[in-house]
Amino acid sequence: MIGHIQELIENALEHLQAKGEFELEQNPTINIERTRSKEHGDYASNVAMTLAKPLRAKPRDIAEKIIAEMADSTHVSKVEIAGPGFINFYLTDACRLLVLKRILKLKHEFGASQIGEDAKITVEFVSANPTGPLHVGHGRGAAFGSSLSNVLKKVGYQVHAEYYVNDHGRQMDILATSVWLRYLELCGERIVFPANGYKGDYIFDIARKVRQIKGDEYRHEQMEVFAQVSPDEPDGGDKEQHIDDLVVNAKDILGAGYEKIFRIALKSILSGIEDDLEEFNVFYDEWFSEKSLHDGDTIDRALKILEDGGHLYKKDGALWFNATHFGDEKDRVVMRDNGLKTYFASDVAYLLNKFERGFTKLVYVFGADHHGYIKRLEAATKALGFDPAALEILLVQFAHLYKQGEKLPMSTRSGQFVTLSELVSEVGCDAARFFYVMRSHDQHLDFDMDLAKSQSNENPVYYIQYAHARICSIMRKLEEQNMTHNVEIGHAAVELLVEEQEQDLIKALSQYPEAVAKAATNYSVHTVANYLRDLAQLFHSYYNAHQVRIDNENLRNARLNLCLATRYVLADGLSLLGSSAPQEMLSEDQ
Predict the structure, then answer these.
(1) Fold held by 2-91
(2) What tens digit of pLDDT does each residue of 145-175 get?
(3) What is the DSSP string of 11-79?
């Protein structure tokens, strides 16, 4: 309907310009929005106010001319001017009621559009280092990224969901060394575990797996392992240098065995991450290996492009990217003085790889602590010769987990955290997915586990699912009362839906495509969550006020059509957010 109203305004402006009443250098952007109150109609446009300055006229005078030139429409019953110059549109009753027929015809396709115009878009999310299991902090990025991918597909994008596997570099070396040290402990060696090693119980699990496969093959004495290693904290040493020295010793002592421990650790943790995400209803089109960038020529080609553009220079033996030239706060090292490529060099190569795969939009879903990545990635994109407008970097704020009023700890390195798998096991995938996205991703989130588990109206996902289950129950129990549902009779009798709660519910259903479009355009999936909560509230109010299974055949079928349309929209919205739409629930009161 928004498109139809825009067309009415556009045609009126064209006629006014043809008649010489308006002279515009360019066509204005025509914004159409839902009105907040029934008194102001169904839709409103501020186009007259946006034209006031270029036309040097009063907004109300402009609005009067637009309305006078506007063609008649079978969907619009009345057009009025309000306030300083808003143009309000009132839809016909037939147009409002038509939405039920559309929903029952399109079913789960209702709300789909071609806003994306089939453009290729990649959404990278989670991408946590495979140095430990996913914790509840990763869960929010997973829920948001997955839901955003679903919403973008709904509006016509070719979406490629991707997990960037950081399987190369220092953190992975610290992981492999941590596993080896725990392995040595299992072999009977007395090890003082490094302050900067990975300490979770999962490290012991991987170490046991190594020992099960290799026995004592990789056992070495404690004196050899710690030979020439600098002191650790809190013994007056540097914990970073201490762990780096241990990594060097591990590689020298184990030789090819180090790579085998590395691979066992990576496979074990990555497999666990995949399982946890699958349990969380999160799936990817590709698990992209950072190591593949190093093994191939992508990094070298990316750096060659920067070099040819004059954007690299040497300083203190290292190779630097002149990022400040493109707006970054400081220049970035791409190759250290020892010849090793940096993480940022991989980031630049990964950018190049995405563009070479034909993506026109690159969405990155990062944690809030990655704010510095925005300017550096934009700088790299410019230097590579691409438009930085193709980047969309979304920062997901932290989620704090609460149980019985107490905030739970979250630290991967110390091993003190609640895993995503544990959260899903306790509150369920549906509640976890919904709770993570019910607030905007750029706002902090307090996750109340007790509320997420409760079967009450205060639990938003339960409240929405209960509305869906109620409708399913209405449909199931028709036969028990010797009643039937005839969709066509319901369509013919749709004008009998005159109750205020029915009109409110119909209006809300018609807004679903707009809610989905807004979520996709603004990367704000909480828009869908809020919409579903409002829709469920309207349905529960309607159900409590009016009987559906009644003897009047025409009114019964019209109301059943309304219920069924609501069911389709609730189920589709929940699926976009990764939650299920159960047909039965324990407290169902039908």
Answers:
(1) Gyrase A; domain 2 (3.30.1360)
(2) 999 999 999 999 999 999 999 998 899 999 9
(3) HHHHHHHHTTS---SSPPP--EEE-SSGGG-SEEE-HHHHTHHHHTS-HHHHHHHHHHHPPP-SSEEEE
